[in-house]
Amino acid sequence: MTRTWDATFGGVPNFDLEVQSRSSGRIWVNISTIVFDNSRTGRRLFVRLAHNVDQRHRNEELLNRMIEGARQFVSLSENATNHAPVAPLSDQERRILTLFAEGSDPASIARTLDISAQTLRNHLHHINRKLRTHNRLEAVTHAQRRGLID
Fold it and tell me: Does the residue 24 lie in any domain?
């Protein structure tokens, strides 16, 4: 009677091995071992099978490099801030941005804060310079995103 074992029945497990090929350089092969046990003669026969798994290894290596690149990319975006550094805004500048965010027009803001239209323009100029913005809408949007105003 001849019995056969392989890795699924408690035999020798299969494994991948990188080998030197005559024609294509180094390749990966999967080595499986089959053991034939002849109970009549008491002899065992070991058969090794090699299966080319080079493309699978290349795909796994490429996938691992892509995953590592993605991890590095995510790490960069988590560590970096999305905003340019800003100079601190004064209380008056924050009040002005808050009023603009609420939809007030320049004339009503000047009246509410008891300042002239020119003083309001000066404040807006300083706000834009500090926030590195170009207009009041952009300043309000950036201030809200940065949590400088509610």
Answer: yes
